[in-house]
Every structure is written in C-alpha cells, then in structure tokens.
Amino acid sequence: MNEIKLDIMKAAQFLNTDAVTALEPEVKKAHESLENGTCPGNDFLGWLHLPSSITPEILADIKATAQTLRENCEAIVVAGIGGSYLGARAVIECLKNNFEELTPRILFAGNNISEDYLSELTAYLKTRKFGIINISKSGTTTETALAFRLLRSQCEEQRGKEEARKVIVAVTDAKKGAARVTADKEGYKSYVIPDNVGGRFSVLTPVGLLPIACAGFDIEELVRGAQDMEKLCQTAPYTENPAEQYAAIRNLLYRAGKNIEILANYQPKLHYVNEWWKQLYGESEGKDNKGIFPATVDLTTDLHSMGQWIQEGERNIFETVVSVEKSKYTVLFPHDEENLDGLNFLEGKRVDEVNKMAELGTQLAHVDGGVPNIRISVPELTEYYIGQLLYFFEVACGISGNLLGVNPFNQPGVESYKKNMFALLNKPGYEAESKAIRERLNK
Ligand SMILES: O=P(O)(O)OC[C@H]1O[C@](O)(CO)[C@@H](O)[C@@H]1O
Where is the catalytic site (predicted)? Predict the structure, then answer.
C-alpha cells in the first residue's frame, strides 16, 4: 500500500541522539492502553476500530440518503459545530475545486452565533430549494440549535411540511437530545453518533460521511484509506509506525520546552484540515494546565504575515508540515517579455516545483532558526489519502494524550463559557449563576 509518510529527522536533531528510541517503551505502553481500553476516557474509544467496522451496507445507506438530498436540493445546509462540523468541511474543501461551486451547493451553518451570517444565509436560501443535515451529538448546542430552528421553519415554509421531511436529516444521539426527539417525532431520516465516539473523532461516522457523500465525493475510498491506516498503526513496529512516531516526537519536543505546534500546509485546500486538527489536538490535550498549543498556518500565504515570528520569535515552537507530493493539474511559470520582476529564470517550470522549493527553503530556514520540523507527506489529495491522514492524526492524538498524562477524550473546559453565557441570558435553572455574574459585573 502506498501511504502517507512521516519524517521526523529535522525535529529529532533538536533532541538527544537516542531520545526517540528511548521513548519506545513509554509510547508502546500509551498505545497499548488505547488498544486494551485501559486508558483514561476508555468509554470513548469507539473511533479506534471504527474504520474496519464500517460495512458496505452502512455506506450504501448513507449514499442513498445523500442521493435523495442531491436530487431534491439546490443547496444542502450542514448545521453543526466543532466535531460535528469540521471533519466534513475539511474533507469537502480538500476535494472540491477552489472556485467552482458544487452542485448541489454545500453550505455550513450552526457554527457561530452571528446574526448577519444567519440573515444572509436565510436570505440566500429564500429562492432556492434546500435541505438540512442537522448534526449535534448533544442536540442542545446553542449555535447549531439556533440555526436548525431558523432553517427548519424556512424549509417547511418553502416546501410544505411533508416535502420538507424528505430533505431534513438528523445525525445525533441514539436516544437523547432535542435533535433525536424532533427527528423521531417528525419522521426525519436519522443517523446515530455512537455514545463511545466523541465529536472530534467522529469524521468517519455519518457526521462526516453523510455531508461528504452529499458533496459527491467517494466515501468508500475515504474509509478504505482509514482502514489501511488502521492496519498500519496496529501492526507496524515503532520505527515505522507513523502514529507512534508522531506522538513520540511531539511529546519529546514538549518536554524540551516546545509548547506550541504549528501545523502548516502549502495547499489552500488543506486549510480546514488545519482547523479540524486544531480541535482534535486542542480539546484532547489542553487540560490539567498542560498541553501543546495547536496553531496553524497556510503557506506560503502566511510566510508574509507569520513568517517573521516563526523565523525569529520566541523559540518555544515546532512545526509540522503537511506536504502534498503530486498536484492534480499542470501550470507552467509564464514568460514575460519585459521581465520587470526578474522571474524569467523560472520560465517553463511547474508552479508546483516552485512551491516545493519554497517549502524546502522554508524548512531549512526554520530549522536553522531553531524550529524543529516534522514533515508529513501525502501522495495526492484524494479521498483515499485523506482517509489515511485523518485516521493517522486520530490515533496519534490518542497515544499522545496518554503520553501527556491527560484524558484525551473529554473536554470539561468547554462548559465554562456556556455556563456564563446562559447565566447572562437568564436561562431557567441558572438563577444563582445569573445573580452571581451580575453582581460580579456591577462591582
Ligand atoms: O455535537 P454537539 O453536541 O452539538 O457538540 C459540538 C461540539 O461541541 C463540543 O462539545 C464542545 O466544543 C465539541 O466537543 C463538539 O465537537
């Protein structure tokens, strides 16, 4: 199998010579505790062998639902936030044309509380036949619930209740939560987010697969990539196991004082993979006053904004570059008669070659500047390799969180803002908190 490759040489050179080798027993133990289900948060390990559990029947059912939506909608709005949003968007943005809109158009909502966003979205949809995929594990997330309320009533108004039923799909908990109750009451087609799969690990459940199928992409290939990576991560020895090596090197760097990891790409289509990765690692590791801060950049774009900081700022960072080996198209650097920009020496070269030299030059400059560099190379931006990449990051995250000594599968800190927001908005049941927060603000 051809696969994504990890190169940690330019990061390991910042550590003692045998540091990565010496960590093997610890990494193996961290990985085994995932596999044996003995790690903290072990009731949330449903994602670990998810790829190999996906049957052709499950995929066929998702594809049939996607087909119904595709046939009946000019736009499909995917309502969700965090893990109920980013995985689908990451894959779709990787695979779609940078400029052409998909047919039907895939729109995202429920990931903010912006009045203008919702106003513009509902106005845009007024003249269009649209459907909704309402994704929320809890069914009570404010951002998503708000968008769904607005969109559902608009959809029913535009199509009539009966027709609307055919184009509203819920992806939610098996039993509890508003989304489940509404779906069951209204008879919407629905999918279950398993109890033991947390949002940020759910891209290979219908949370990700349904929107990706609606966008017209090949979910079989995506799952096949993840399945192959599942096999590799389970069987490969330490030195050839990308998930174990990535978990090892980032923890060693963290222990050496590098507490910020910057995920970088050289393809705009990977922007939302950055966003997905940020949630995966941020929510998994940032707790108990510990954790690498996950930051992201799009290059070469951000070399013209963040490049200075990365090159010469505080030396507490390391960089992980996701590099795509093969471009889909060919564009050659053009000739210019006047050559005022002095770039005719590049004439006839593939733009991708120039991009790759920018990448190599940047890697060497950053390493010279004291920034350890990890490189993940992806053969091509296809469903198969994206499936590999996402699953690789998930397993590495589980191992890494165990090495760090946290529970990688909870996110208790996320509740704090919600508690304050509800207190400020006088949510019933929050009377004491409302009183306390008002007193605090009036001091
Ligand atoms: O699917 P839900 O329950 O709406 O939650 C969405 C997101 O909110 C969080 O619970 C907190 O941000 C994430 O972990 C999750 O991915």
Answer: 283, 418
